[in-house]
Structures are given as structure tokens and as C-alpha cells.
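Recap from last week: sequence in, structure out.
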Amino acid sequence: MSQLRYDPSTDMWVVIASERGKRPHDFRIAHQEKRGGECPFCYGNEHQTPPEIAVTGRDPDIPNTPGWTVRVIPNKFPALSLEAQGINEVVHVPYKAINGIGVHEVLVESPHHDSTFGTHSIGQLKSIIAMLLQRYYDLRTNPKLKYLQFFKNSGRIAGASLEHAHCQLIATPLVPVVIATETRIATDYFQRHGRCLYCDMLEVELSGTRVVELNDDFLLFCPFASRFPYEMWIMPRRHSHDFGLITDQEISTFCHILSTGIRRLESAFDVIPYNMVLHTAPWEIGHEHYHWHLEILPRLTIVAGFEFGTGYYINPTAPELAANSLRQVEEVISQP
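Predicted C-alpha cells:
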């Protein structure tokens, strides 16, 4: 029987159509043809991108040349830009607008064109996270910016316009509505109960059937009100509102559990388009009751009329079934 499940962290409901019970082999995502031609993110083509902002693995004093391991460049077609001068709010009641101030960058994950978060070595993942943190710390010093959204679109269905493995960072002058809602809900919950909402969620999930992987510092699980089939979250087990406060030890355990989660998806599905989004507290003070986490959102179904009309998602795979299916591929990925 289907259920309507409530997500207390977003104040949203999800329809779990469990009678459909879709397992990995029930999803058919077509293979995409390679586009061919030169890739601007591959070695030797550094001149085809805007000048790099940051780099690892190669002397930064010899910019825009091969030899790097991770590279950050401006997005060639930015959604937001610091070239916009001032906020300059314009109000036409009931509407208002501001200049598109912000930063839009591309983090090229590896010189290897076909690498993925599942095939990156742990060392390469650590380099990616270290670069993300470097940009996180640098951009938060700009008083015009309020939030940095780190995200990855993997596969054309998930919005990737280039095949080469890359992530994106967009810093915004406003706190995004999703984060503003989640932080408000987390604060309200703490004021009512004296506890962190996400820590309470962790306590339930740690002993439940939706666990996919667990280590000393992080939990990988399919959330109770999963919006998408095989949706997974990675959440720190200690309370931490700010991704920027992650420790060196936690970077290592985070990379291991992230690698495991993506490898399981890639092993379970022939083709697995997905989005990955980091949720962390805004840079302004006062959000200590939030709890940062990473969401991995497979794009195996199409968001359609019901979702657009109601704001409710329909998920044909219960998270308990999804977690169990993903645990089944553990032996496959544990082999060298």
C-alpha cells in the first residue's frame, strides 16, 4: 500500500508508491552517445577555458598548463557574476529585483575525461574536497556573498552539458529558499525540543533498515521520505552546522563513504544520472542548530505534472527497499 511520508526537515510530503517496488533492473536509462571532439577540460586544452582560479598538483606559478590534479576555473557562461555592481534593488509592487551578483565556478575533478566519483581514488577525492574547502573559505570573506552552493550534475539527464568529470560552485548574495527553510525549521525544532532535528533523525536511522553504510564519523542512508528512487544522504554523526568545520579525519572518512555510495549506485545501475548537492549553514551567524549534509539524488524518474502542481514527489521505490538493494552490491565493490 502506498504511503504519504512527511519530511520534518523540509515540511514536505512524499508519496511512496511502494506497490510498484522498483528495483535497479526495473529502471531503463538509455546510454548516451559520446559527443566527440576536443574537450576543454582535458590535458593540453587549458587554453580553451577561462584562466584558472586555483589548482593542485602543479606549480600555480605556471598557470593554465597540464600537470594538475584538480582545477577551478570561472564558468564560461556564469549564472551570477561579481561584475554586477551593487545590489541595486528595484521594486515594482508586488515584484522586486536585484543585480545578479555572485560567483559561478567549475571544479574540474580530474584530468581523466571518463572518471567518476565512483572511480576516483580516495586520494583524488581528498584533493577535490580540499579544493572545495579552499574555495569555500576564500569566497566567504566577500561581504557581498551569503551562501556557496556546491553541486554536481552527472549525466545529461541530470543537467550536465559536458562529459568530463566536474562539479560547480555558485555563491549567491541571498540565502537560498531551500536552505532558509531548512535552517528555520531546525531552529524552531530546537526551541521546542531542546535537541537538533537532524541528530534525532540520525538516532532513528542508525538502528533502522535504511542504512546503506556507516563509519566512525558519517552515516550514508536512504531518507525516510525519499523524493527520488535510491536517494541517499551523507550526514556527519557529530552535530555540525557548517561544512567548513569538517576536520582532517572527517575529510578522510567522508571521502570513503562518498566513494562507497557512488560505487554502489554505479554497480547497481547500468546508467545512473544523478545530482549531488551540499546543504550547509549560511555564512551569517545564528544557524548553529542546523546540521550539514550531502544529498545524492538519482534521476531515474521524471518530475511531471503532479509534482509541479502539488510540490509532492512520487517515489516508486521505498527507501527501505532501496537501501537493501544497495547493500547487496557491497561484495562487488569491495573487490580491488
